[in-house]
Amino acid sequence: MSTRRHRIVHRTTMRYDGEVTAAHNELRMIPVTEPGQATLEARVRVKPLTWSHVYEDHWGTQVMAMESQTPHDVLEIEATSTVERSELPVHVEASGWDAVREESTRDRLSEYLAQTGRTEPPAQVVALAQEFADAATPRQAAMDIVQRIHDAMTYERGITGWQATAADVWEGRRGVCQDFAHVVLGALRAIDVPARYVSGYLTVDEAEIERGTTVPARNHAWIELWDGGWHPLDPTNLGPVGLDHVVVGRGRDYDDVAPFRGMFVGPQVTDLELDITYTRIG
Question: What's the pTM?
Answer without folding.
Answer: 0.95
